[in-house]
Amino acid sequence: MKVVCETERLTIRHFNLNDAEFIVRLLNEESFIRCITDKNVRTNTDAINYLTNGPILSYQAYEFGLSLVLLKGTETPIGMCGFLKREELAHPDLGYAFLPEFWGKGYANEAADSVLKEGMAANSLNTVLAVTLPDNFSSNSLLKKVGFNLKGTIDLYDSQNNLYEFCV
Asked: pTM above the 0.90 mark?
């Protein structure tokens, strides 16, 4: 299992099929469905398909993808963070989602900052994008905190999103 990066409090590693139960929980959070989308992942079988055709396929194709964020020490899964490569965007984009009980503790900021710095260097990326709904105030704030600049808006998956850019 490849560790992407570590921080003082977090370990960020590639997903594997044993993470299916966590994926079912995270992808069915009301906040995930509202702010990202409904991935229609309801069972462990759905989650295995999601992991196989999403993050795991991305690791094989691009050497990056969404990764599992765990608390150090307890190895409690709390969210995901990593780069995605979407056909609609010219550059990889940073994606993240966390269970609501771990919001407001700085974990998303810590994970995004570490993935951004270490992931860009490891994958020789000069530019990373990010998209978020205009009314997702915490994500808009987080992206600015870690150094993204608002470039405008983009219509993505039938909704208008803020488009951010981070360049080295």
From this structure: yes
Separation CA 128–CA 15 (nearest Å): 21
DSSP conformational letter for 105: S
For the chain, the domain total comes to: 1
Give 32: exposed, middle or buried? Use CB within 10 Å, 0-12, 13-18, 19+.
Answer: buried
Give me the mean pLDDT over the 77-88 stretch. Answer: 96
**Are the C-beta atoms of 93 and 130 separated by less than 8 Å?**
yes
Q: 11 φ, ψ to 5°?
A: -115, 130
User: Whose structure tokens read 């906040």?
Assistant: 31
User: What are the residues facing 10 on neighbouring strands?
Assistant: 71
What pLDDT score was predicted for residue 157?
A: 79
Full residue range of the structural domain in which residue 158 is found: 3-167
Q: Is there a contact between 7 and 111 (Cβ–Cβ < 8 Å)?
A: yes
How far, in Å, are 4, 11, 17, 32, 80 from residue 124 at the CA level? 14, 22, 28, 30, 21
User: What phi and psi, each to the nearest 5 degrees, are found at residue 74?
Assistant: -95, -20
Segment holding 48, helix H or strand E: helix 44-53
Give me the CATH number covering residue 19.
Answer: 3.40.630.30
Sheet holding 10-14, edge to edge: 3-6, 10-14, 66-71, 77-84, 93-98, 127-132, 159-167, 149-156
